[in-house]
Specification:
It contains eleven helices and 14 strands. It is an alpha/beta fold. The strands form four sheets. Strands 3-2-1-4-5-6-11 form a seven-stranded parallel sheet, with helices on both faces. Strands 12-9-14 form a three-stranded mixed sheet. Strand 1, helix 1 and strand 2 form a beta-alpha-beta unit. It binds nicotinamide-adenine-dinucleotide and uridine-diphosphate-N-acetylglucosamine. The site of nicotinamide-adenine-dinucleotide has 26 residues, from helix 1, helix 5 and strand 5.
Length: 338
């Protein structure tokens, strides 16, 4: 069985490639390296001892994408190829709508031409919006998103649902990720953000290693136990295994399903910083600052459905996440390609 990972050289795609290869799947990756580089896939091959067929292309370019389908017998597609920086999506909305929506349409069109009927999509907890109460359950309606990035995810979910409604043969799984952190236990692959990290864990790691002076914790006056925001942090390897379970499932079932991929357990920003310091024996300089616009006080999953239907649940602890994030950062202080 062959799985095409669109955007597979990135953070989540590269970890998923490892777990798919370990489970016996063949993996084809197509990526334009707009936020990654081929070295991640070299390392996937080193870790697994297996080879990955790699294409450098823009998924929006249907002529080039066709070649991938022509040359490979693809059983399922996982669509990771998207731009994901929330702040940038506010300043460059057209770029986000163009890239994220067009990659989706190109994949669906090309799959249609080559009769490929299984697709799994990287969605986000952000589609629950501001209205729904935590913990989020898949049966809740999508909410009002707070930024263009979030809207692209909500729109793409709608596009997949409409397309599946029109084609009874098309199977779709929408995976709503919570907050992926951590890295492969080998320390050879991990998250490699460009410039100043937007997300918490890469920022924490870069402060710990001395690349950044100080972490600002955005707000300590939220209605939570310690006043800082809580999130459902999930180890990227657990998330990757969730994709393998989704592929196993979609190949056998003509489904249209949504699954939360989270632990169901929220941790606060302060707990993340304290756990990182304790587990790794390092100092993370931090100060408390103003709230960041658009942040919710709490965000965590009800993770029951993925367990009931896919037989998947997370196995790694917050300590594992902090240890593995630091291991990657220490081994690769400048990421892959810099
Ligand atoms: P990433 O940026 O590391 O990976 C995305 C990959 O897609 C990159 O390798 C990038 O080069 C590639 N890409 C983007 N546009 C492309 C295009 N037009 N053609 C070809 N390749 C293209 O991000 P990630 O963290 O691995 O996230 C993967 C997916 O999961 C994204 O769609 C993201 O929005 C979604 N997601 C991520 C998170 C998170 O916290 N990391 C949370 C929820 C959802
Ligand atoms: C953000 C996006 C979400 C996206 C996800 C992955 C928003 C509102 N949500 O989630 O749509 O899917 O990234 O790209 O932007 N924090 C600090 N200091 C920092 C950085 C973060 O205190 O320097 C705090 C934040 O306030 C938040 C928590 O850490 O409470 C996690 O932040 P982050 O890693 O950016 O993820 P989210 O905001 O949850």
């Amino acid at each position: 069985m062959t799985v095409l990972l669109a955007g597979g050289a990135g953070y989540i795609g590269s970890h998923t490639a490892i777990e798919l290869l370990n489970a016996g799947y063949d993996v084809v990756v197509a990526d334009n390296y707009s936020n990654s580089c081929p070295e991640s896939i070299n390392r996937v091959e080193k870790i697994t001892g297996k080879s990955v067929k790699l294409y450098e292309l823009d998924i929006k370019d249907t002529d080039k994408l066709e070649k991938v389908f022509e040359e490979n017998n693809i059983d399922a597609v996982i669509h990771f190829a998207g731009l994901k920086a929330v702040g940038e999506s506010v300043s460059k909305p057209v770029m986000y709508y163009r890239n994220n929506i067009d990659t989706t349409l190109s994949l669906l069109e090309t799959m249609g031409r080559y009769n490929v009927k299984n697709i799994i999509f990287s969605s986000s907890a952000t589609v629950y919006g501001e209205e729904n109460p935590v913990p989020y359950v898949e049966t809740m309606k999508r909410g009002v998103c707070t930024n263009p990035y979030g809207w692209t995810k909500a729109m793409m979910e709608q596009i997949f649902e409409d397309t599946a409604r029109a084609d009874a043969e098309l199977a779709v799984i929408l995976l709503r990720y919570f907050n992926p952190i951590g890295a492969h236990e080998s320390g050879m692959i991990g998250e490699d953000p460009n410039g100043i990290p937007n997300n918490l864990m890469p920022y924490v790691s870069q402060v710990a290693i001395g690349k950044r002076e100080c972490l600002t914790i955005f707000g300590n006056d939220y209605p939570t136990a310690d006043g800082t925001c809580t999130r459902d942090y999930i180890h990227v390897t657990d998330l990757a295994v969730g994709h393998v379970r989704a592929v196993d499932y979609i190949i056998k079932n003509k489904c249209v399903e949504i699954f939360n991929l989270g632990t169901g357990v929220p941790y606060s920003v302060t707990e993340i910083v304290e756990t990182f310091e304790r587990v790794n024996g390092v100092k993370v300089n931090h100060v408390y600052g103003a709230r960041r616009e658009g942040d919710l006080a709490e965000c965590y999953a009800n993770a029951d459905k993925a367990y009931e239907i896919l037989g998947w649940k997370t196995e790694r602890t917050l300590e594992d996440m902090c240890r593995d994030s630091w291991n990657w950062q220490k081994n690769n202080p400048d990421g892959y390609c810099k």
